Amino acid sequence: MGKRILVQRRGRGGIQFRSKDHLKIAPARYPQDGMDNLMRGVIKEILHEPGRHTPISLVELENGQEFYYIPPEGVYEGQEIQIGKGAEVKTGNVLPLSEIPDGSLVCNVEMRPGDGGKIARRSGTYAIVFSHEGDKVILRLPSRKEKLVDARCRATIGVVAGSGRIEKPFMKAGIKYYHERTHPKRWPVVRGVAMNPVSHPHGGGSHKRPGKPTTVARTAPPGQKVGHIAARKTGRAKRRVATKR
């Protein structure tokens, strides 16, 4: 009789898969104020939130409202920022995409007007305002793909802070362990082919290979749902050679 594999235990839930909410400061979202008018605010504090790879800034608006947002590189405590229509195209300011010129680097871009920011929030990432087409804007995402979004969506001018994070190696497994503890997942991640047959569908055998096709149906039960789930195709694409007629 086999044992419950990791995906089954993760689906059941438990303390080891629970997010450590007591370490969280607050969601980083744009305020609803400033959608149709110009608001000014001051960066009161730049904080570190465990589990978030970017800094987080506390901003106080001129009406007394406070919110947290993801700061770009170059901002500092005490800096005055502008939010909304008519704001200057300056690092740290939040503008609708319709007022940002082509070729600008932006981060924390909204996918829908008023959702608070969804795109390019990771440290060192940014999107490029590629072109304007009426009430739509074409964005070039960090993945180099292009996306069409509403011109009313807001974005922060600049590149997300903390870009040098991936340049420093962990060096020790203990440091990596405490780093991963802030996330609701198990670490280290073990390959299925390195396990015993009772622990994983890919386990066992005299060699480190699955020994069978790794594609699995979308409707498979949790004990089988590992590998390439509902894959349209796997492996390398066949190279087609043109022939002369």
UniProtKB/TrEMBL annotation:
Residues 89-222 form the Large ribosomal subunit protein uL2 C-terminal domain. Residues 197-245 are annotated as: Disordered. GO terms for biological process: cytoplasmic translation. One of its GO terms (cellular component) is cytosolic large ribosomal subunit. Residues 11-83 form the Large ribosomal subunit protein uL2 RNA-binding domain. GO terms for molecular function: rRNA binding; structural constituent of ribosome. Residues 230-245 have a biased composition (Basic residues). It holds the Pfam family Ribosomal_L2_N. Gene3D superfamilies: 2.30.30.30, Nucleic acid-binding proteins, Ribosomal protein L2, domain 3. InterPro entries: NA-bd_OB-fold (IPR012340), Rib_uL2_dom2 (IPR014722), Ribosomal_uL2 (IPR002171), Ribosomal_uL2_arc_euk (IPR023672), Ribosomal_uL2_C (IPR022669), Ribosomal_uL2_dom3 (IPR014726), Ribosomal_uL2_RNA-bd_dom (IPR022666), Translation_prot_SH3-like_sf (IPR008991). Keywords: Ribonucleoprotein, Ribosomal protein, RNA-binding, rRNA-binding. NCBIfam families: PRK09612.1. Belongs to the universal ribosomal protein uL2 family. PANTHER family: LARGE RIBOSOMAL SUBUNIT PROTEIN UL2, RIBOSOMAL PROTEIN L2. One of the primary rRNA binding proteins. Required for association of the 30S and 50S subunits to form the 70S ribosome, for tRNA binding and peptide bond formation. It has been suggested to have peptidyltransferase activity; this is somewhat controversial. Makes several contacts with the 16S rRNA in the 70S ribosome. Part of the 50S ribosomal subunit. Forms a bridge to the 30S subunit in the 70S ribosome. This is Large ribosomal subunit protein uL2. It comes from Candidatus Korarchaeum cryptofilum.
